[in-house]
Amino acid sequence: MRRFWTRLTSVLLVAGVAWSAHALGRPSTIRVSNPGVGAGNRPAVGGSAWSVVHLNSLLEQEFKPEGIGVDWTFLRGAGPAVNELYVNKLSDFSLLGDLPSIIGKASGLKTRILAAATQTNLYIAVPADSPIQRIEDLKGKKFAVFKGTCLQLAAARIFESRGLSERDVRNINMDNASMKAALVTKDVDAAIGLSDLLQLRDQGVARIIYTTKGDPRLTCNSTIIGSSDFIEKYPDITKRVVRTYVRGAKWLADREGAPTDVFRLWTRSGNPFSAFREDWQGQSIKAANSPLIDPYLLSRYKRSISDAKRYGLIRETFDVEPWVDRRFLDAVLKEEKLEGFWTPAPPSS
Predict the structure, then answer these.
(1) Domains, the chain, ranges and CATH?
(2) pLDDT value at 129 more than 50
């Protein structure tokens, strides 16, 4: 009987916290979705300021005093799976790559861009003993790409820059884990992915034939987006989420000169320190993780919307400006005295 009353008391306390949050115009839980998982399906990733927010439990620390929970969902289905959560009203915020967020918006999902996220380097790998040396050699070959993600849009651009099209290769839809396994077993001739492909190279089972490093025109961009319904219902909570993200980006920027702690933190994703170190060598962590919605980001998304239509990935284009909600980021940067901390980047060609 004592155990029963103890359990009942716990249930009532939890219910009371949730009711109090609702009564005060606050959600009981903030639902955060992430496009991708770590090595071995771990619920953790690295490589961005958003991952710093997760790995350092910054949102949890921000909202714990009010009893507001934070529920992180990591999805092997990546961007398309995140869109499914938004469709079913099961996500409030996420980092999301350009193509899936554009497909979602073009399909009628009510989301808003709240801040810029990381610029991601991409790699194309082939089996270690493959005769393939160049992008041009992929014509007619089996090419693994995760369709519906930013990788698909980037691959189309890379092929086009070398005089090819998606029709010139045999595209095979695979998630990240399946793609890496297929490279090892040689069930595909090549694959496009992130810096975790460097680990396969270091293991002697793959070879990198191309990277977007040094050519940001062909890489992935991403943003922090939020559900329009949540933003309209809880603007103060939304502002605090954006503030927490900006603080995560500031923490990252402050360690640019000595990023060892950053790379160690990111290894909790299961991907090695050496891959993160090589991926970021010669690049500015601060600039690549700037939260600013600047001319660079806007030009990239305008181009991505146009390219998505041209490649047949969406039916109609739309204007990026009404999709952007700057009010929270602008207020946070002013209140945190970070106006001018990040330099706005010029438009991309």
Answers:
(1) 18-119+221-335 (3.40.190.10), 123-211 (3.40.190.10)
(2) yes
